[in-house]
Amino acid sequence: MRVLGGCDARGGESKYLAVSNWHPGQLTPVIDMMQVLAQVNLQRTFMQRIQQNLVIHSRRIKHRKNSFWLLMLTTAVVFGCTGGPGHAEEAFMPVVDTHIHLYDLARLPGLPWPEKDDKVLYRSVLADEYNKVIVKNKLAGVIVVEASPRVSDNDWVLYHTQEFKGQFLGLIGALEFDKETFKDDLKRLCQNERFLGLRIGTQYLDQPANKDYMKDPVVLANIQRLSDAGKALDVLLLKLEMDDVLYIAKNYPKLKVVINNIDKVISEGKGQGAQPQDKIKAAASYSNVYCKVTSLIHQCTVKPAAKDVTYFKMELERVLELFGEDRLIYGSNWPCIIKDGEFSDHFKEINDYFAPRGRLFLEKLYYRNAEKVYGFRVK
Length: 379
What we know:
alpha/beta, 8-stranded parallel sheet, two-stranded antiparallel sheet, about 10% strand, globular, disordered N terminus
């Protein structure tokens, strides 16, 4: 039997490791070991190559005569091409930040957010500033979420980020769902491959909530148009209710719905926009409802904000219990988070809690679930 992708004693890649005379059942624990080791800091491609060839050639093995080769193969896998323990090269983990905001105060007056008295956020926040965050933290990409309902702001983001389109993977835009112009605006935005979906609820940032909004036939028809276009729907739970999420999830089963506000999901009914827990559980029961895991430090009511992951353990356990590993999506909510620390502080808080669950879990959280929802691909 030949196991391609082995390593010689010097740490270089050899053509194969020769292993013979094994019983097929003897391979089972080795293959299981491959799956475990693929989640730690070894090169995933190396692990997969060995595992695939073990499976391919297992049928050729009829008898086990020499357990020495089992020990040798295990050693080769553990040491990889690293030269020994403690030298395993950390496999690259793509991380996509699915939630940041960009805006230019000099472009047009009248932005509904941020507020003028916000000394941290009331300034122009442009792509080159966040691109420095991407480089410093080695992120694979970012998605911009539009916080203004003005149609032209969607076009501005797509144009403004064109220079960095390799890093700025797309836009979750904002249109007013109760406008007759929605159909034409959506059609035009869909012509840009980096347009990934819309956020509903943005129109309430600077005005009272309309409790009849989800009863408006124009709104409902436009949600259907978004679903038919194959785009996602982010939901801002400030003045919209979890009942609205339930209605959308039930009546538009092909539409992927993403709850933006993790604090509204785990706040036990306290604070602005907090939702009843029974309604949250009901919404989470729908397979087309996802939740963004945004920074908890920024939403912490204790000031200065707690930066120890144990402080948020119960909250993170709660959201994982509700949505499971296949429907959680990472997002930072930058630049809002800079009020309470650097990007790396916020990311560490999330990563410290979820990292023990293994690489496969982290891949889902940091980019695979987002790829599934928004339709982009990490290169």
